[in-house]
Amino acid sequence: MSTTLDAIIFLAGWTYVSLAPYTKVEESFNLHATHDVLMYGVRSETLQNYDHFVFPGAVPRTFIGSVLLAWLSQIFLRVFGLFSHFRDKMDVQIIVRLALTSANAFGLCMLRRAVSRRFGGPTSVLFVILTCTQFHLPFWMGRTLPNMFALFPANVALYLLIDRAPNSTRPSKANVHRAIALLTFATVVFRAELLLLLGPLVLQTLVRKYTTISGVLRVGLLAGGLSVAATVLIDSYFWQRWPLWPELYGIYFNVVEGKSAEWGVSPRHAYFTSHLPKLLLSTLPLSVLGAILEKRIRALLIPYLAFVFLISGLGHKEWRFIIYVVPAFNIAAARAASWLFSRPKNTLFGRLSFLAVASFIAANCFATLLLARASFANYPGGAALFAFNQVFASEQNVHVHISNLAAQTGASLFLHSNAPPFLPGLDVGHPTNWVYDKTENMSIQALTSSREITHLIAEIPSLSPSVTQYWTPVAVIDGFSGWRLHTDVVQAFKATKVIDGLKAVGNVLEMVRSEKLVILQRKA
Predict the structure, then answer these.
(1) Whose CA is closest to 128, among 147, 143, 108?
(2) Contact partners, residue 104, CB within 8 Å, separation at least 6
(3) Going by fewer Cβ within 10 Å, which terminus of the chain is more open, N or C?
(4) How crowded is residue 430: how many other Cβ atoms within 10 Å of its Cβ?
(5) 455-459 and 399-402 beta bridge pairing
(6) Closest CA to 73 of 47, 34, 42
(7) 190 φ, ψ to 5°?
């Protein structure tokens, strides 16, 4: 049973990677850094080829996660290479993402086993069900956001704190120190906002006398010092800037200078009223019930609630900044669901409790289905470039310009299938001299005047009717635009047979797709 539950967690992550293999612009730094480490290596003479010198982003990011992911991906590539040959760099992107989602799935499996030991087998089973029927955590844990690199040490830290017997009143001091060290590392290297989780957690351990002030200082200084040394040495090397501590730079840019507000400002309550409900779905009311029912759950949630409260003080808010709280809330919800399931079924309350939990899980599944369908159709740039590589696979000397929308919605370096660099040992049976051009802010007139450009992946709204004078449309790529609610279901029942009415119910919510990109070929 235990192995089956672990397999379900891995399978959920792998399924999302397979069904949505492309990436968005916010994932690009770590994805392209991993690409460059794999393709070029890490010797100083190859750094000039790295993508971050061309597209550095608003603030520098650490290379530590990308180097570790590239190392882990090489293991996956060797294993997969035993069964098949890779002919396309896109295959490598999928394997890189499978490696990352496997690491985070492993962290969730460790946490599940701790839940089983601390709260019992039924709670462990429901933890898996609730986690895998949510959307954001399983979908995003294989995506190369900095937050997903920080998620693994955050989950392992939580595992260390709850991995104890049901009647235990405190975790071991060694586990407390390990958890503090891991969160310190994740804060210093990956995501500075985790300091707002580390602070309440340390305060709780001191108040409850899990450890001492001297112990916290010793562990914090040692872990913090080593982490700072690692990120400064490694990132200064890869960025060729000395000294560089990316997360400290990010704090200064986003918090001190307030530049994060340029990406939007949300009201203070947004995490509690918008982002948490979106992340947790129907798990949210169950987690509230879990906190009401049990003191152990309240103690578990206090640092995470404090974290959400503290980070709410920052103006710019995104759901990914609080993704680390989801497993803790899921434990609380699983405990509540287990309690509801255990009510005697020969009573009305017992039957209603069972129905309530089943309804919550069904609601999770329905919401996740809608979110997943929308997300699968939300990467037109990746779909366009993949289709382009397939359509013109037999041609040589291709120079394709990739528009901004295409670059932001999936046209990653791993989709530069017919241009160097190539992974050593990659079975290349296709052209290798193409040029993939992402030059920004070029009008259609300027692109037409550049005679070396043979093809375009262009945004449809930017095109004028005169484009067809110089370019031939080859394919149109559509993408998600929204949902349309059909309100004529009642009329369908009245005007047609019952069977037709039931079919209309299935179509009450329709996904709307619209044309996003077009592949153009220059006329002779």
Answers:
(1) 108
(2) 13, 141, 142, 148, 151, 152, 155
(3) C
(4) 13
(5) parallel
(6) 34
(7) -105, -55
- The three-state secondary structure class of 21 is coil
pTM given for the model: 0.93
3 state SS of 510: strand
In order, the DSSP letters of 444-506 are HHHHHH-TT--EEEEEGGG--GGGGGTEEEEEEEEEEEEEEE---HHHHHHHS-HHHHHHHHH
Cα distances (angstroms) measured from residue 208 to each of 174, 301, 444: 15, 15, 65
Whether the CB-CB separation of 93 and 100 falls below 8 Å is answered with: no
pLDDT along the chain (524 residues), means of 10: 92 96 94 95 92 86 96 91 79 95 97 95 96 96 96 97 90 96 97 96 95 95 96 96 92 81 86 95 95 94 97 92 97 96 90 94 94 95 94 90 94 92 73 88 88 92 77 92 77 57 64 91 87
CA–CA separation, 107 and 109 (whole Å): 5
Q: Which pLDDT value is given to residue 496?
A: 57
Look up residue 338 and give its DSSP letter. Answer: H
- Contact, 514 vs 454, CB < 8 A? no
Give the pLDDT of residue 499: 59
